[in-house]
Structure formats: structure tokens, C-alpha cells
Design brief:
Blueprint: H1 12-16, H2 36-44, H3 51-55, E1 61-64, E2 68-69, E3 80-93, E4 99-106, E5 111-116, H4 121-127, E6 133-138, E7 140-142, E8 148-151, E9 154-157, E10 171-174, H5 183-197, H6 207-212, H7 218-226, H8 234-238, H9 243-270, H10 281-288, H11 296-309, E11 316-320, H12 327-340, E12 344-348, H13 352-369, E13 373-376, H14 382-394, E14 399-402, E15 416-421, H15 429-436, E16 443-448
């Protein structure tokens, strides 16, 4: 999950909260309760610089601390939560300067010792009192006296109203942290951010899309993700499939698609190709000499392709079909359409073996139709390659089959009208674009049996 606003869209929320005393999602994290200058520098290492960044710092997993047990029911090594009463506590001194804080807790069913090796003595002695009710979470282990102990447990006071805290008696978020910033402190900071800034989260998805996909509001989603309620499935949380996660992921994908659609529309508006006359003389000759009939699927696809070729916007179409389904025939007819209009065609394959296979399969048909055909691969001798390149640049070759050699900077087409790229998943986006840039917005057809 990325930080918000990856496409630098206008933030309407912040435009409404510009006066001096109001909150903004762009408030520096340093001024949020519990942060300060030192922690702000630590948070910056995790890419957190504003209040909005905090919301997009999604927990990477969750722990369940809402199944409360009695001390007698505790199992060794199991992450558990239990209530108890403080019977006593003290700072125990060991050898040398070693010391630890030890607390004895009982709940009527048994006793357990809680131990902290890293602690603030003044804080611990001031915060806790004998007789206080507390909630602890951690993993019990055996102690030297034959009883139970729990080392560095999460601990909170058990208030009469039993309101869950940030560390116990609930499902808690686990964040990636950094040296010098404790997880407990980070959860407290996140709690402060959610409580103070959640109301500024406004929906950017259309209402009908939210309803149709049964999604919570943006504010609800972030609250669910950072501090989920007790009735949310832990499995769904761990797999990022809770309602809150679904909403945030859906929104990110929606914005990416929106940006891509916007970019594509602008590109199509700017790109002006050339319309081709379809069903010309060469194609008719080819179809008349075919020893088989085109399938209904092939006819349907060809109709759609011909409709595109007749437009002044360059075609950019993909054909998906299993091996042997007849994609090559459709591709060849597309290339013939360009040749029928006095243009050149190019067919690019990912390997020399496949390029040679295409070349051999097309040789007979090209000869019968009076079309000049050549193959361009890296295995050609320099002299042979130079002759072919000159013929291509002069327009003396109608159709070129090749590998990555077709996108080499030395190759220049006289008038490239249509390109076909086989096994598109074997080429990168820039490699495919490089071939189309060899002409003035030629029509493009890509083929695959395994679309990616």
C-alpha cells in the first residue's frame, strides 16, 4: 500500500482547512502529540513526515490480545492476555550493576511474576501501586522457582469501564519500526493521529461505486485498519482482506486506473496515425488462395481490427489465444492491409528460432502475392545486414520479420504502417514502444498465449 495521493491529485480536504488555527492532513508529524523533534527524525526514516503519511503507514501484521484467560489457564509460550491484581513489586539487584523490575500478580486462580530488564525505575514505582487491577499481554515461561513468569509484557491499568487500551484486551496492530522508536510508542502516536485527524479524511471515490462494491467510507477504512474492532476476523486482517483493507486497496487501484486512463486518453488525442483502406486486392488474393476457412473467432477479431485500421487513431490491440488457435493468420492479414496501402509491415518475435519459423511460414504466401519479405536477426553477417537495412530505408522491402534487431537504432523504415509483436510478455514496455516509434504512429497488434 503506497502513500496517499501518488499522482499528486488536488487535496480538497486541505483546501478547506487553510486558516491558521485549523488542522490539516499536511501538518508536520513533529507537532503531533507524543512525537517531538527526535521522534520526527526517526519517523522520517520510515517515510512519515505528515499526519497523512501516518494513515498510509499500514500495519504489516496483527496480534490478538482479546482472548482473556485466568492465570491458571496460561500455557507456556502462548501469546495470552489476563487480568490480575498487583500483590507487590520491587527493583531487584543482581551481580554487578545488573537489576530488573519485578512484579507479582494474582487473580484468585494463581500467581505469576512479571519482569522488566529495561525499565524506568522512577516511572514504574510511581505508576503502579499494590492492589491495582491491571491487564497484561505476553508469553509466559517457567521461572527458577517452579512457577510462571512473563518477561517484558505489555501492561495497562484495568479501569472500571473496561475500555480497551492500545496494548491489551484487543487486536493490536504491529508496525515496522526503526531503532530508537519502540512499537508501543508508535502505536500511541498512531492512536493520537487517528483520533485527531480522522475527521479530515474525505471520500474521493464516487458514491455509487462505494455502494456498489459495499465499501466503508475512507475514514472508517483507516480506523478499521489501524485499530480494528473486536469482531473483525484476525485471519482477514493478516491477509489484508478486512473491509478496511479492501477499501484502501480498491481506492489505490482505482486511482491508478484513473491515471492510466487519463494518460491514455491524452496520448490518443495527441497521436494521429493514418487510416488504411481495408479488404484490398492483396488480402482478397490471399483469402481466395487459403486452403482452409477462417473460424468465426478469427472473423470476429479481424472485423474489429479492420474497424480500427480505418480510423486515423493508431490501433493498439492485443490478441490472446492458445498455441495453434490461428493468431498468426490474423496478424498476417493485418500486415497485408498496411502493405496494400503502400506501407511497410514488421513482425517482431522474442527469439531467433521463432523469427525464423515465422519467416519460413510466410515465405510461400509472400512469394505468391508478390510481396518482398526479409528476416533481420543478430546472426546475419555485417554485409548482409547492411544491404537489408538500406532496402528497408528505401521501402524496397514490404515485410520484415526479426528479433530485437528490429528496434536497433540503425534500422530506419521508409513508411512503417503496421507492427505485430509476438509473445508480448517476453518484451518490456519500452521495447514494444521502440518498434512503434520506428514509424509515424503505426498501427500495433500484439499477440500472446499467456497475457501479462
Amino acid at each position: 500500500l503506497q502513500k496517499g495521493n501518488p499522482f499528486n491529485l488536488p487535496n480538497m480536504t486541505d483546501m478547506k482547512h487553510r486558516n491558521k488555527n485549523s488542522l490539516s492532513l499536511q501538518d508536520p508529524v513533529q507537532f503531533i502529540k507524543g512525537v517531538g523533534p527526535r521522534r520526527a527524525e526517526l519517523l522520517k526514516k520510515r517515510g512519515i513526515e505528515t499526519a497523512e503519511d501516518c494513515f498510509y503507514f499500514i500495519p504489516h501484521r496483527y496480534e490478538s490480545r482479546n482472548q482473556v484467560k485466568s492465570i491458571a489457564e496460561l500455557n507456556l509460550g502462548e501469546l495470552v492476555t489476563f487480568h490480575g491484581e498487583i500483590l507487590g513489586f520491587d527493583v531487584i539487584k543482581g551481580r554487578g550493576r545488573k537489576k530488573w523490575f519485578e512484579m507479582v500478580i494474582q487473580d484468585g486462580s494463581g500467581f505469576i511474576r512479571a519482569i522488566w530488564f529495561q525499565f524506568n525505575e522512577t516511572y514504574m514505582c510511581k505508576r503502579y501501586k499494590v492492589g491495582q487491577q491491571i491487564i497484561l499481554s505476553g508469553k509466559p515461561s517457567p521461572d527458577r522457582r517452579g512457577g510462571l513468569q512473563i518477561v517484558h509484557p505489555s501492561i495497562e491499568l484495568d479501569y472500571p469501564d473496561n475500555v480497551p487500551g492500545t496494548e491489551t484486551a484487543r487486536v493490536i496492530p504491529v508496525y515496522y519500526t526503526t531503532e530508537g522508536l519502540h512499537l508501543k510508542s508508535l502505536r500511541t502516536i498512531m492512536r493520537n493521529v487517528v483520533e485527531k485527524y480522522i475527521s479530515l479524511m474525505e471520500d474521493c471515490l464516487p458514491e455509487d461505486i462505494v455502494k456498489r462494491n459495499v465499501l466503508p467510507s475512507r475514514a472508517q477504512a483507516f480506523k478499521m485498519v489501524h485499530f480494528p474492532s473486536e469482531n473483525v476476523s484476525l485471519k482477514d486482517l493478516q491477509n489484508f482482506r478486512s473491509q478496511g483493507h479492501r477499501r484502501i486497496i480498491f481506492e489505490e487501484l482505482f486511482l491508478i486506473q484513473l491515471a492510466l486512463a487519463h494518460r491514455k486518453r491524452n496520448r490518443i488525442k495527441k497521436a494521429r496515425g493514418f487510416p488504411l483502406k481495408t479488404r484490398g486486392h492483396i488480402i482478397k488474393c490471399f483469402l481466395n488462395n487459403l486452403t482452409f476457412k477462417l473460424t468465426e473467432a478469427q472473423k470476429k477479431v479481424l472485423t474489429e481490427i479492420m474497424d480500427d485500421l480505418e480510423k486515423d487513431q493508431p490501433m493498439n490491440r492485443l490478441i490472446q489465444g492458445d498455441v495453434g488457435s490461428g493468431k498468426t493468420v490474423v496478424a498476417f492479414i493485418t500486415l497485408l492491409t498496411a502493405i496494400d496501402n503502400g506501407k511497410q509491415g514488421a513482425l517482431m518475435a522474442p527469439t531467433e528460432i521463432l523469427a525464423e519459423q515465422h519467416f519460413l511460414n510466410l515465405q510461400s504466401d509472400c512469394k505468391n502475392l508478390g510481396i518482398s519479405l526479409e528476416i533481420l536477426t543478430s546472426t546475419l553477417k555485417p554485409k548482409e545486414k547492411k544491404i537489408i537495412l538500406e532496402k528497408i530505408s528505401k521501402g524496397e522491402i514490404d515485410l520484415v520479420v526479426g528479433t530485437h534487431s528490429l528496434i536497433h537504432e540503425n534500422i530506419k523504415f521508409h513508411s512503417l504502417g503496421a507492427t505485430v509483436i509476438d509473445e508480448q510478455h517476453r518484451f518490456g514496455v519500452r521495447q514494444r514502444e521502440s518498434l512503434t516509434k520506428k514509424g509515424s504512429h503505426p498501427h500495433t497488434l500484439i499477440m500472446t498465449a499467456t497475457p501479462i
